[in-house]
Design goal:
- This protein has 8 helices and no strands.
- The N terminus is likely disordered.
- The relative contact order is 0.13.
- It has one domain.
Length: 160
């Protein structure tokens, strides 16, 4: 009988083998990312050349968390997934996997508001929100990230 390391892994309907690394942001909860998946995400982003999107997307692909956050927030709300959305969101995923608490918070928010092709967006968003709380070591930075996201959401809802 095999030993289960994390029984919640068995309950999740998707695994890394079900899609390419650029789709994992919308498929896999935080606890499914081990070193191997993290490496595959990084390698996938390093192989992408930016034709359109400018310096912000290029910086996000290089691992700049602020650029990845800005690129992801520029996509909200996500009504339909495209390659450009997968690229920007995977750049954000990379920053969250690198323990950037603000990136994890934004990833949680964007996933929670995205229209995905499965009914598990709330569970995905919750896994990244929990990661955000756990990895927010600096309370001041934590508050800044939440304040910035809150300001963005107020602007989005008011249409300005």
């Amino acid at each position: 009988m095999p030993v289960l390391i994390n029984s919640s892994d068995d309950a999740w309907p998707f695994c890394a083998e079900d899609g390419p690394p650029l789709a994992w942001w919308r498929m896999l909860p935080m606890h499914h990312f081990r070193d191997a998946e993290h490496l595959l995400v990084r390698n996938a982003l390093e192989r992408i050349a930016v034709i359109h999107g400018g310096e912000q997307v290029a910086a996000a692909l290089r691992g700049d968390p602020a650029a990845a956050i800005a690129a992801a927030l520029s996509l909200v709300p996500i009504r339909e997934v495209s390659l450009s959305i997968d690229i920007a969101m995977t750049a954000l995923l990379r920053s969250a996997l690198n323990n950037d608490a603000a990136a994890a918070l934004v990833l949680s928010h964007v996933i929670g508001r995205a229209e995905l092709d499965h009914p598990f967006a709330a569970e995905l968003a919750t896994s990244w929100l929990a990661h955000h709380f756990r990895d927010a070591r600096d309370p001041h930075r934590f508050a800044q990230a939440e304040a910035a996201l809150s300001g963005f959401l107020r602007q989005e809802e008011s249409g300005t």
